């Protein structure tokens, strides 16, 4: 049973689906295929979780040992959360005795074959012995290379067996996790350096037992051993963006700059000083590569599993930790942070022939050899339908209001754009306009249409650009015989940006006396977007980045009430004239005389 307080506790979680009834076992081959498909889906998902389990030593302390909290943590991780990997930060046991290690090893069997993980030796696991050249121990026999060898993530161990490497595939990329002994030797450091060089393009997380400590305010500093690790390994390898360690309390964090000038997040997580030795409390690092953030949460699955009316006061108090060192978000632009060693592989430019079909009525791009943008310059219609555009600057405008730019959307066919610097006070800008005889001017699109455009708004978005136009057809709606609209002088079709940066697509259909209008959310600045206006012959839907916006009217909309006047990029016509121009970048523009599906868009 799931109680209300549990739902609130895990409000940031992606809950696993509940199983209502037993399902017959699949044949081995079918089950293997489904597991493979599931693994592939998880690897390609932009979201995944890394579980961090710090010092559990007080749960495995001779006669007082109680593995129940850790058993529940393992059950939770394998049955209730979609976790990609778990890493233990050392001090699995209190004394490292055969009996303690045996009990811990048996407890870990609950996740063997279910969840890949790493374990490293803390000082209590090896009786405080010196570095990883200490030889055989009860810990090494239980948590050495043999334990990890069957895991799909295992990438090898140092010769001594105390240091291991793991390659995790999640978030549509691979990640390297190094699990290093609490006192790694120079030989161990050389091994770790070799692993990083073997996987030079993988972002890496270093886990160890002793690296940083914290003051009561949560401000972390490197320990003596941590300074050695930083100087001899971490700071010179730009791949390492996060370190995790236990050993010390209270928890804390800091950010250090490596030799490349990039951030390395240094985190301490340890709860053995809390009630019931921390009760196998876990910290989940929830990676979201689409949002460029890692959301961190800390809680005890053991206390969570109990009914609220049966929890003791201390269990309720320790159920979840929400202070700034236990529940927080890290904003990381992953592509930018990893660009120095693993630059994103961008799609190559595509020729016009790859995106022009028999349904394409106009296609413009701005990567032509020596593309000019002086007044009167032509931008060719690459569809072959003679809907060429011609450059014209508006009143009060200098040459700098329009320029060819190398900026472009990653998925854009052409690797170029136009930069528009239009605005108000006084009105100025530039437009690209079809000729008076262009076939596009009179097309009604009664069977449907798709208009696509790549856009980027500047960051910062300076000045007043309310109601600037992106494209429009000239021709007053009153002249088209339309009476159900805002102003008889406004054009019969236009895409605009409101004062709140909402897209507004308004069309006067060829058939209906109406003005169905679509509205988007507030568009972001400093980021390329793909906008598609799709009409299936009866209704219009606007998409941003392949996602349907919410405010698409259900009103019938058949065609566009064009009047034989030019189509224009860079502004919206009003009373057959123009005021302010577009402010930002504009990439490829394609118009198709049928409704396309998102998979057929230029970003598809």
Count of DSSP-assigned helices: 11
Report the major sheet: 8 strands, antiparallel
CA distance, first residue to last residue: 43 Å
The secondary structure category is alpha+beta
Low-confidence residue ranges = 1-41
What is the typical, i.e. mean, pLDDT?
93
Number of strands: 32
Strand content: 25-35%
Shape: elongated
Helix content: 10-25%
Q: How many whole angstroms does the radius of gyration measure?
A: 30 Å
Organism: Winogradskya humida
Signal peptide: 1-27
InterPro entries: Calcineurin-like_PHP, ConA-like_dom_sf, Metallo-depent_PP-like, STPP_CPPED1, TAT_signal
Domain Calcineurin-like phosphoesterase: 65-219
Give an overview in words.
This protein has 604 residues and is of the alpha+beta class. 16% of the residues lie in helices and 28% in strands. The strands form five sheets. Strands 17, 20, 21, 23, 28, 29, 30 and 32 form an eight-stranded antiparallel β-sheet that branches. 47% of the residues are buried.
Quick structural overview:
The chain contains 11 helices and 32 strands.
How would the blueprint of this fold be written?
Blueprint (H helix, E strand, L loop, with lengths): L3 H6 L18 H17 L2 E7 L14 H12 L3 E6 L9 H11 L8 E2 L19 H6 L1 H4 L5 E4 L6 E7 L2 E7 L6 H13 L5 E5 L3 E3 L5 E3 L1 H11 L5 E6 L6 E6 L5 E6 L13 E7 L4 E7 L1 H4 L8 H6 L1 E2 L6 E4 L2 H5 L21 E5 L13 E2 L9 E5 L8 E4 L11 E5 L8 E5 L14 E8 L11 E9 L14 E7 L4 E6 L9 E6 L5 E8 L4 E5 L2 E2 L18 E3 L13 E10 L12
InterPro entries: Calcineurin-like_PHP, ConA-like_dom_sf, Metallo-depent_PP-like, STPP_CPPED1, TAT_signal
Organism: Winogradskya humida
Keywords: Signal
């Amino acid at each position: 049973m799931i109680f209300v307080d549990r739902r609130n506790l895990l409000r940031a979680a992606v809950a696993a689906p509940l199983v209502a009834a037993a399902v017959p076992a699949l044949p081995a081959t079918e089950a293997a295929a489904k597991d493979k498909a599931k693994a592939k889906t998880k690897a390609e998902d932009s979201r995944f979780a890394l579980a961090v389990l710090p010092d559990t030593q007080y749960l495995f302390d001779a006669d007082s040992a109680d593995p129940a909290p850790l058993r529940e943590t393992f059950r939770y991780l394998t049955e209730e959360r979609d976790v990609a990997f778990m890493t233990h930060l050392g001090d699995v046991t209190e004394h490292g005795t055969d009996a303690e290690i045996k009990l811990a090893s048996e407890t870990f069997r609950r996740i063997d074959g279910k969840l890949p993980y790493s374990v490293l030796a803390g000082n209590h696991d090896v009786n405080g012995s010196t570095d990883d050249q200490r030889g055989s121990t009860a810990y090494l026999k239980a948590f050495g290379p043999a334990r990890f060898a069957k895991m799909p993530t295992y990438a090898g161990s140092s010769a001594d067996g105390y240091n291991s490497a793991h390659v995790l595939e999640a978030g549509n990329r691979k990640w390297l996790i190094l699990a290093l002994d609490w006192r790694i030797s120079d030989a161990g450091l050389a091994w770790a350096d070799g692993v990083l060089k073997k996987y030079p393009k993988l972002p890496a997380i270093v886990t160890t037992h002793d690296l940083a400590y914290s003051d009561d305010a949560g401000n972390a500093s490197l320990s003596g051993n941590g300074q050695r690790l930083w100087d001899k390994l971490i700071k010179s390898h730009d791949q390492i963006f996060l370190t995790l360690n236990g050993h010390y309390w209270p928890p804390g964090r800091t950010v250090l700059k490596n030799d490349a000038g990039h951030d390395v997040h240094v985190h301490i997580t340890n709860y053995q000083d809390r009630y019931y030795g921390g009760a196998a409390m876990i910290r989940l690092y929830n990676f979201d590569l689409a949002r460029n953030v890692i959301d961190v949460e800390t809680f005890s699955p053991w206390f969570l599993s109990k009914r609220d009316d049966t929890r003791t006061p201390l269990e309720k108090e320790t159920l979840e930790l929400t202070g700034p060192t236990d529940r927080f978000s890290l904003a990381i632009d992953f592509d930018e942070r990893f660009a120095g060693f693993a630059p994103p592989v961008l799609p190559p430019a595509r020729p016009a022939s790859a995106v022009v079909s028999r349904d394409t009525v106009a296609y413009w791009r701005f990567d032509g050899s020596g593309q000019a943008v002086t007044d009167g310059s032509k931008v060719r219609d690459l569809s072959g339908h003679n809907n060429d555009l011609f450059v014209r600057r508006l009143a009060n405008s200098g040459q700098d209001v329009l320029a060819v730019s190398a900026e472009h959307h990653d998925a854009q066919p052409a690797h170029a754009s136009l930069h528009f610097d239009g605005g108000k006070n006084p009105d100025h800008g530039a437009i690209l306009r079809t000729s008076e005889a262009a076939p596009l001017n009179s097309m009604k699109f009664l069977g449907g249409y798709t208009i696509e455009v790549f856009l980027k708004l500047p960051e910062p978005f300076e000045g007043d650009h309310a109601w600037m136009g992106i494209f429009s057809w000239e021709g007053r709606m009153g002249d088209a015989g339309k009476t159900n609209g805002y102003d008889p002088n406004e054009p019969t079709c236009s895409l605009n940006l409101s004062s709140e940066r909402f897209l507004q697509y308004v069309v006067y259909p060829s058939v209906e006396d109406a003005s169905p209008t679509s509205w988007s959310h507030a568009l972001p600045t400093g980021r390329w977007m793909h906008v598609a206006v799709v009409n299936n012959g009866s209704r219009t839907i606007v998409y941003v980045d392949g996602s349907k916006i919410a405010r698409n009217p259900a009103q019938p909309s058949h065609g566009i009430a064009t009047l034989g006047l030019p189509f224009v990029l860079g502004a919206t016509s009003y009373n057959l004239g123009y005021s302010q121009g577009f402010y930002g970048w504009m990439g490829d523009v394609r118009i198709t005389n049928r409704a396309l599906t998102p998979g057929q868009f230029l970003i598809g």
